[in-house]
Amino acid sequence: MSTEYDVTLVASDGTTTKIRIIDSINPLPFSDRWSGDAAMLGSSGGVVASWGTGNAVLHTGPGAAGNVTLEGFNKSTKAGDTGSGSKTSDLGEFPGGDLTWTCDKVD
Questions:
Q1: Residue 28, CB half-sphere, CA atoms under 13 Å: how many?
Q2: Cα-flanking dihedrals φ and ψ of residue 47, to 5°?
Q3: What sign for the dihedral angle of Cα 15, 18, 24, 28?
Q4: How many other CB atoms sit within 10 Å of the CB of residue 41?
Q5: Considering only Cβ atoms within 10 Å of each terminal Cβ, which end of the chain, N or C, has fewer?
Q6: What is the pLDDT of residues 43-67, one digit of tens each?
Q7: Burial degree of 29 (CB within 10 A; 0-12, 13-18, 19+)
């Protein structure tokens, strides 16, 4: 059984978007995924990496070209938790740079 996190991202200019992070029970690397609005992030989904670092890195572009880093987001994140992060590409309408995240729901 997987754990799914619904998360709201807010850019420093107030732009918002929602994503879903799926923490699968599969222990193989790159089995965890995220999904969201392709128009906002430049991709409708991809791989989640770096859980072991205490951050979640959502790959949004080809290769390592784009990613969204959610600092402090990990497998123990609960609904209502918040944090900061960044987007390192200009893909999509959601601007690059600093952002905040809020975990809205955990299933």
A1: 3
A2: -90, 145
A3: negative
A4: 26
A5: N
A6: 999 999 877 788 999 998 766 667 9
A7: exposed
Cβ–Cβ under 8 Å, residues 75 and 51 = yes
Q: Residue 54: its pLDDT value, please?
A: 86
- Bridge partners (DSSP) listed for residue 105: 6
Domain ranges of the chain: 3-106
Helices and strands (H and E) in the chain: how many: 1, 8
* Run of H or E including 38: helix 38-41
Q: Is residue 10's pLDDT more than 90?
A: yes
CA pair distance 95, 34, nearest whole angstrom: 18
